[in-house]
Amino acid sequence: MTYDLIIGDRLFSSWSLRGWLAFESFGLPVRLHEAGLYSGTLAADLVPFAPARQVPAMRTPDGIVVADSLAIAETLAERHPEIALWPRDPAARALARWLVAEMHAGFNALRGDCPMMLAHGWDGFAPSEAVLADLARIETLWATARERHGADGPWLFGEWSLADVFYAPVAARIATYGLPVGAAARDYVAAHLARPDLRRWRALGLTKRYDPMPYAQGLPQVAWPGPAPLPARAVEDGTPENAACPYSGKPTTHLAEIGGRVFGFCNAGCRDKTVADAEAWPAFMAVYQS
Q: Which superkingdom does the taxonomy of this entry point to (predicted)?
């Protein structure tokens, strides 16, 4: 009973991130398909998901196509009542839906001026008054959820929910552009950046090269503000510590030096995603720590 989900480029498609997190963070089985947002193939790639025109779009195991991240989220919540995608408490659930709906329909200044870009951070970005107003509203919503329902954990409603799924790209934008928010909001942003699923999403995005890089700002680049990855690079020579790829179990053909040690992988994709952020991948870290 596996779903199909088509997504756009990971470094830039905030709506795709929301759609993917709705599956990944709740352990729902999904088979991914990638559409070319910047290669001109989007319309052709979406044909199997007709009549969808944008990513993300999903196909349920029984063949129903659903587009739009909010429609996908509500459909998953309806089909999987055993999983708390929304908060269980009715008052918390109502507020969570409110926060998600406002995010889905609003914050246009933040979206327009600060497109999602996960490759690195920018130094010296000057937010407009409209962006500052969006940030103030976001902080109000986050603080309201935390004060009323968030005492039992780091997320908006204590435990992770669809509300956090929908605000993950907002947190990423605040981090990328160094936007001014208060201490509580900064802690919430940091919690998102530290999540292994978000780190895996970004690592996979970093395996793809762009020339030119979309959404250039003409500002100095700074290191990504999330957890610093292990030092790593692809290498051509060396004797790997492992004989089998950590992911596939196949013989190793591609090498990387990670933390000063050499490891092998079955293809360039497995190697490159690990080089991008080794600690995001439990299968590799099991080998690294053994």
A: Bacteria
How many Cα atoms within 13 Å fall on the side-chain side of residue 103?
27
| Angle in degrees, CA 10, 111, 132, rounded to 5 | 135
Total-model pTM: 0.96
The whole-angstrom separation of Cα 265 and Cα 284 is 10
Residues 6+ apart with CB under 8 A from 47: none
Sheet with 254-258, strands from edge to edge, namely 232-235, 254-258, 261-265
> What is the distance between the alpha carbons of residues 198 and 194, in angstroms, rounded to a whole number?
8
> Which residues make Cβ contacts (< 8 Å) with residue 97, sequence separation at least 6?
86
- Longest Cα–Cα distance of the chain, Å, equals 59
Residue pair 233/257 in contact by the 8 Å Cβ criterion: yes
Sequence-distant (≥ 6) Cβ neighbours of residue 98 within 8 angstroms: none
pLDDT tens-place string over residues 206-265: 999 998 999 999 999 999 999 999 999 999 999 999 999 999 999 999 999 999 999 999
**Alpha helix segments (H runs only) across 106-161:** 108-113, 129-149
User: φ, ψ for residue 48 (rounded to 5)?
Assistant: -65, -10
Q: What is the DSSP string of 30-61?
A: EEEEE--TTTT-HHHHTGGGTT--SS-EEE-T
